[in-house]
Amino acid sequence: MTAVSPIGERVRQLRQEKGYSIQTLAAKSGMKRPNLSRLEHGHHRPSLETLERIAKALEVPVVNLVAKRRDSNDFQQ
Questions:
Q1: Is position 45 within any domain?
Q2: Cα–Cα dist 60/63, whole Å
């Protein structure tokens, strides 16, 4: 079994904070739902282009998807 990746975990967290279903985020980011699910579960390594599309759909900078989160204020400017 593959451990959930930090990126996948962060995408899921942000998606849930926005109140988006996995289907909604997939549609907003132009991804297929199974691929997004695989990413969230650590079975898919996203390209930079994919991360950019997900970040845009979630209305966050790409760094929010890849940086280790220490505090909820770390990403706010």
A1: yes
A2: 8
Is there a contact between 71 and 33 (Cβ–Cβ < 8 Å)?
no
DSSP-based three-state secondary structure for 55 = helix
Q: What is d(CA 20, CA 32) in angstroms, rounded to the nearest whole number?
A: 15
pLDDT band (50, 70, 90) for residue 7: very high
Domain total of the chain: 1
Is 66 a member of any domain? no
Could you tell me how far CA 21 lies from the centroid of its own chain? 12
Q: Which of 47, 51, 42 is nearest to 5 (CA)?
A: 42
CB proximity list for 64: less than 8 A, separation 6 or greater: 10, 14, 55, 58, 75
pLDDT at 38 over 80: yes
Q: Domain containing 19 — which CATH number?
A: 1.10.260.40
